[in-house]
Every structure is written in C-alpha cells, then in structure tokens.
Amino acid sequence: MITERNMTSTRRAVSLLRALTILALVVPDFELEGHGTNRFTAKYRGIAAPIEGSWIFNIDAGPVSFTALASFSAGGVFFGTGSLDRVNPVSTLTGNWKRTGPNRFDSTSYFLAFDAAGNAVGMLKANQVFHLKGRNDLVGAALVYSCSLQGEDCVSVSPAPSKVTGKRMVIEKVSEEVTGSLSSE
C-alpha cells in the first residue's frame, strides 16, 4: 500500500539521486590541482587532460626540420614517430607525459637507434615541454640525448632545443559513401 510517507521518502531519494548525478557531471571539470576550472577544461569533456589525443608536429631542429606524429594517451602514455625515422633508422618513441602547470605538459620518451644491419646500437632520449595555445594548437621545445642500450649514461646531442609546433588531428565528418558501406554488410 502506497502511503504519503512512502511517497515522501521516494521523492527525497529521487532528489538525492538527481543531485548526485549533477555532481558527478560537474566534478570532472575541476582540475585536480585545486585551482578551480581551467578555461580549456570545459571544452574537453570526456578526456582527462586537454593534450590527450593525436597531433601532427613540425619540428625545427636547426639545420634539420621534419614532421612527426605523436599521441598523448590517458594515464600519461606518449608515442611518436617522425618522417626521418627511416633515413636515420630508429624505433617509435615511447614514453610518458604529465601535466606540470596550467596548459603545460612535460614528456620524456626513449627510442632505439639501429645500425645498417638492423642491430640496436644505442638508445636516444627526448625531453620535451609543450604548451597548449588553444584547443588544437601547441608549441614546445625538445632536447635529445644519446644513451646506452639500457637508457643510462645519457649525454646531450642537441646543440640547442628543437622548436615544436603542433596541430591536433581532428575527426572529420565521414562521407555517406563510407557510412553506406556499413549498411551493406
């Protein structure tokens, strides 16, 4: 039997559930550092940090410039590869990133260098810093070090920091021709 008391309890429970749902939707927009809301954070619903995603980099390393692809994954995982990686045989860059300030992110990554026979002869380390200039634009700098195969005893091989500019890869609208091919299966 439904009584007025049961209805009141049900209304309170529904109100509490609504309040908790709203709180759960609002809380992720605040930075963990306790500085309130970052102006970029509200635009990045669904990702833990606004740098997450994949980027196209232009790298100016003084006498050499090249293009690179890089991805910043949740949990601080960084991957990258460059347009010169087959000229100077090296592996994919693998490393970590972290937020170090408002719209600032640091990354350290390692990659193997190979001789002409394909044997690993050393490891390189790249220390990078990135600053988000907007939702889809960043600037940065990088220094490269030569290390032992174990990633130790590193010495700088960069006469000066490389300059990095980046554009986020943006998902494009998929054409009807592509989406139509799904319905024919």
Main attributes of the structure:
about 180 residues, alpha+beta, about 45% strand
Account of the 3D structure:
- The structure is a single chain.
- Strand 1 and strand 2 (64-73) form a beta hairpin.
- The protein has an eight-stranded antiparallel barrel with strand order 1-2-3-4-5-6-7-9.
- Helix content is 17%, strand content 43%.
- It is globular, with a radius of gyration of 24 Å.
- It has helices spanning 4-26, 176-183; strands spanning 53-61, 64-73, 77-82, 93-101, 104-114, 120-134, 137-147, 155-156, 162-168.
- It has 185 residues and is an alpha+beta fold.
- It is built from two helices and nine strands.
Brief write-up:
Helices cover 17% and strands 43% of the residues. It is built from 2 helices and 9 strands; from the N terminus they run αβββββββββα.
